[in-house]
Design brief:
By secondary structure, the protein is α+β, with helices and mostly antiparallel strands. It has one domain. The protein has nine helices and six strands. The strands form three sheets. Strands 1-2 form a two-stranded antiparallel sheet. The chain has a two-stranded antiparallel ribbon with strand order 3-4. A hairpin with a 5-residue loop joins strand 3 and strand 4. Helix 1 crosses helix 6. The longest helix is centred in the first third of the chain and has 21 residues. It is globular. The chain starts with 7 loop residues before the first strand and ends in a 5-residue tail after the last helix. The N terminus is likely disordered.
């Protein structure tokens, strides 16, 4: 793990990247107490209601995935939650069952380390920070990713308490091998299904900018902010913005 921390400083009322001097840590204290309990209660109730309402959609997608290619319906992966605690993360399978993760490991390392030219090269010249030219993804999987329907099983993670409706996205264990110390600040809260990153650029945002948004979310969190993010997520998902 890198020893030099890219710092953040407050300028013009917002956090911006600075040199290797200091960084503004994530202050997760506001997630405690009654507000944190209300957030958890709302997460649980919302996830239960959404799972029940979307059960026909779950079943339809399960049938489509099962018939489209050999392998299980769900893709289960170890992710890191609050304070780096590992948990089982669920998605509808969008890749071949026998797919190797090496291509994603390499892309993740370039993305986190700021190798923007390498990311563009991997995506066939497209200036995006999401792995689009991924040969492991099935045709149905591309549609699921574009519409974000592959993310629906994470409602089960929210019910279990491993995730929240809103928060930083949970990293894969091998991704944090490339983290700088200040990047770890995003692990101070429960990860989310959506967040500032999803509604403010998604695949057009660099990794440092994504962490910047995560820290802004943590340090300015409120129930009202969660509601705003959820409402802004809906049109983003309907447009398929950055879904691939």
């Amino acid at each position: 793990m890198k020893q030099d921390a890219v710092a953040l400083r407050v300028a013009s009322g917002s956090l911006v990247l600075d040199q290797h001097e200091f960084f503004v840590p994530a202050d997760a204290r506001r997630f405690g107490g009654w507000a944190g309990s209300v957030k958890r209660a709302l997460d649980f109730a919302s996830a239960v209601l959404m799972t029940a309402a979307l059960l026909p959609v779950f079943l339809a997608i399960a049938v489509i995935v099962k018939r489209s290619s050999p392998g299980p319906v769900f893709y289960v992966q170890e992710r890191l939650g609050r304070h780096g605690r590992p948990f089982r993360f669920y998605k509808f399978r969008s890749m071949r069952h026998d797919a190797d993760d090496e291509i994603h490991r390499q892309f993740a390392a370039m993305f986190i380390n700021g190798d923007h030219d390498g990311c563009v090269a991997c995506n066939g010249g497209k200036r995006t920070y999401k792995l689009e030219e991924d040969p492991r993804v099935t045709p149905i999987g591309r549609w699921l990713r574009r519409t974000s329907l592959d993310e629906l099983p994470q409602l089960l993670n929210i019910i279990a308490g491993d995730m929240s409706l809103v928060g930083p996205r949970p990293p894969i264990a091998y991704e944090i091998e490339n983290y700088q110390p200040w990047h770890l600040e995003r692990l101070k809260v429960v990860p989310g299904l959506t967040g500032l990153w999803q509604v403010m650029g998604r695949s057009q945002v660099s990794f440092d900018e994504m962490v910047h948004l995560d820290l802004q979310y943590i340090n300015h969190w409120s129930l009202a902010l969660d509601l705003k993010i959820v409402l802004r997520t809906i049109p983003v998902v309907l447009r398929g913005t950055g879904g691939m």
